[in-house]
Amino acid sequence: MFFHNSYFTTHFGNLFFCSKISVFSLFDHQKSPFRYTQISNYVNVYMKWKKDPFFDSILHIHKSAELKPIMQLKNFIVNYPNGCIPISSVSKRGLEFDISIRVARFLRQYPSVFEEFRGEHNLPWFRLTPEAAEIDREEKRVLEECKEDLKDRLKRFVLMSKDKVLPLKIIKGMAWYLGLPERFLDDSKGDLLDESFRFVDMEDGLKGLTVESNGEKVLSTMQRNAIKNGVYFGGTLEGIEFPLFPSKGFKAKEED
Fold it and tell me: Which residues belong to any copy of the PORR domain (predicted)?
């Protein structure tokens, strides 16, 4: 099920990114620069997932794996002529929507979102329920209100890369986690992406997105919050103190 306006506002407002300069409070600000770690690119990392009972019990996190395909199907239905689809239009596209079971079965699992009815040739068709359609309209209003924040978030994401350019396939793979709507990168009219964004050709025939920063300094959300609180002034080697503590219910196991 979708969430209320406050969810979208929180979701778009609270995403954060790694700082360009990551430091810990126990470091002396007068130590040599080699004591600091600079992060300026992305790599493939494989790590063992640590279970956290507290976070796993949060509905928004626990159900996020189901929410993504629901949202993808919702958007597909909304963009379809007349706002309804025959099951044949999605029955063979389960992998595209990250659905491991039959798409028809998945749709029927959420009757509060997807309404089934009989259409032409007595075949099953699906449309949004009135409640889901209203929440979809509310989502569009929130996205419109957060358009500048979305552009800023995408701009920071691109500028964090080494060459200030990222392949579109990387950005599209992260769009869900950045809170970007599907149509954000298909902006042919320039309503969403301003003149600072530019599509470029990359190696191996890939399309990429770059940003003209015009000397603009890229700050993480942590840095911005620290500036707002008056504990950080944007210095090159200036540290930001932040607490390090486990979440509730998290118990670290010591290995012998």
Answer: 50-255
Q: How confident is the model at residue 111, as a pLDDT?
A: 95
Handedness of CA 142, 196, 40, 185 (dihedral sign): positive
Tokens of 20: 């360009």
pLDDT band at 254 (very low <50, low <70, confident <90, very high): very low
Separation of alpha carbons 91 and 27, rounded Å: 56
Token digits for 79? 């963009």
pTM listed for this prediction:
0.64
Give yes or no: residues 191 and 220 share one domain.
Answer: yes
Residues 128 and 159 reside in one and the same domain: no
**Structural domain includes residue 2:** no
Cα(224)–Cα(184) distance, integer angstroms: 25
Strand partners, 38: 21
